[in-house]
Specification:
By secondary structure, the protein is of the alpha+beta class. The protein folds into two domains: 123 residues, Helix Hairpins, CATH 1.10.287; 162 residues, G protein-activated inward rectifier potassium channel 1 (Immunoglobulin-like). Strands 1, 2, 3, 7 and 10 form a five-stranded mixed beta sheet that branches. The longest helix is centred in the first third of the chain and has 30 residues. The protein starts with 25 loop residues before the first helix and ends in a 10-residue tail after the last strand. It is a multi-pass membrane protein.
Length: 321
Amino acid sequence: RRQRQRFVDKNGRCNVQHGNLGGESSRYLSDLFTTLVDLKWRWNLLIFLLTYTVAWLVMASMWWGIAYLRGDLHQAHDETYSPCVANVYNFPSAFLFFIETEATIGYGHRYITERCPEGIVLFLFQSLLGSVVDAFLIGCMFIKMSQPKKRAETLMFSRAAVVSQRDGKLCLMFRVGNLRNSHMVSAQIRCKLIKSRQTPEGEFLPLDQCELDVGFGTGADQLFLVSPLTICHEIDSRSPFFGLSKRSLGSEQFEIVVILEGIVETTGMTCQARTSYTEDEVLWGHRFLPVMSLEDGFFRVDYSQFHDTFEVPTPPYSVKE
């Protein structure tokens, strides 16, 4: 098989990288929350730890600074002296007071006295800042953990697409399946043909996208995905494969991108699974093996034959011919 660069990998990852953004890179900071959610887990965890560590050290230093400027560190053991924060003797004790306040632990050993207005202001600032940081970072981690990307891994596509006759018409077909018992609500499938072409005006389009009809008019693109389904694209005069024959298939260069979208039944979030088929992964004159069998009171799906095909008599000519 010829190995070439794919636009979309078999696992659905798009092989597109954005470079030389220049001043446009500032747009990522304008939507910082989405930027953090899109980062990989290792960077999310690093930012999570660094943000809390730096915030804790800075706030603890501010409490220690107030105690140092007031002279509380030298007179904290004097029972007749009223410090800003009781029982704060050094930086570790100031850090412990900050943690007790931030985490609302409240051991009762360290507390703010009423003779410290700057401490009261700092306490209010710490409470507001802590609420904002917690809402931002914990919300980011929650959204990232609840993303339905892992659900897409249990949606299966056949490794190859086939071209054969169905109901007397030449069709391009591939198979999709759902490995989980939970359903995909309002599942819909779309196909894009990515192929370079040149316009009559001489303009070259390296990655021109063309829609493949998989049943928009008949509603066949709306899937009830409780068992493996074979998606069919009828090759007719409106199809971009109108002139495709078995012989020309070996000299063509195209990629079919398949996009399956639906709502995850358990979470209510939208999930999208993608894959692609290059011209080397389109088998002419093949059909998928059946995977459904009727047993005692239920239907069984044999996923061991999900990707298997067998040859069937198919004319080697294009629909145009």
